[in-house]
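step=predict obj=Restriction endonuclease n=307
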Amino acid sequence: MKLQCASCGLRINSLHFKQEGLINPKLTSICDICLTRGLNPDEYENKVIQELALIMLYSFAGRKTESNKLKNEKFLVPTKQRKAYEAFIQDYDGNEVAQQQIKREIFNQAIIKSEDKIIDYVPRNDVDFAVNMQKLNLEINFSLNELDYIDREQIRRKYNYRCQYCGRKGTSVDHKDPVSLSQNNDSDNLILSCSECNRIKSNMPYNLFIELNSRLKTVNKRLVQYENTLANLKEEFAQAKRDLAGQVHLRGVVNDPELNAMRKQNKKLHDAIDSLQSDYDTLRNTRKTYFESGWKLAQENQTTDII
């Protein structure tokens, strides 16, 4: 859920408006960035957050109002710059590596310096998150994976170039506990996966991924069968194309009954490959959605509040 700050005007995640209270949490009329400025939320009206707090039985830190419009007509952040700040803040909120290395208070202070032009730079949507961070003097080391080629090759040979999650061919050395969180490059934290499983797992806890994957034994076997069958058919098709090209060269003609028969056979083979590839991709996408849903549900299960 996104809420608008009554001071700066930014529409950002509701976590920026939630504070711990004596008994229940409280929602503030302004965001945590503006609180870092030392602004007093009791001086600002924000009917949306006021009503939300009432519905959720939270306390509200702000000036009570009956008006649905924010009275502050001149927000701290100009309209043209808001989307850039909002996108940048959203990137930080979703980046665990950044949050580990740069505390939120430090991040908020950098935003304030940018807004006040103490730092002559406004985050841009057309550059990488890391570049924006660097321009705001927020240094992050995104290169936590320090494995060299020899280490990676040893892992690949250890597991015979097979993904340990699905059984397909694999060359991606995966960290069981995500290196972005654990910074653990020890051998007991390394395993081999295919690029697809590596992308799906991402920062998902290893135990959760294994639990979800354990329910897909039949699906994973089918994936291996698809991969092997497609590889064989594609090699057969490639050889058939080479044979056809060789016959065309030897005969010195393009149109010939026997050559046309070879082309028709190649077309059937190509259609079969396309059909099988389509079925394979459908199964892969269904499996990917299954993991994504399981990860989202696990995260929701750990969240006690809707804000």
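step=describe
The chain has four domains: 2-61, 81-136, 149-201, 218-302.
step=end
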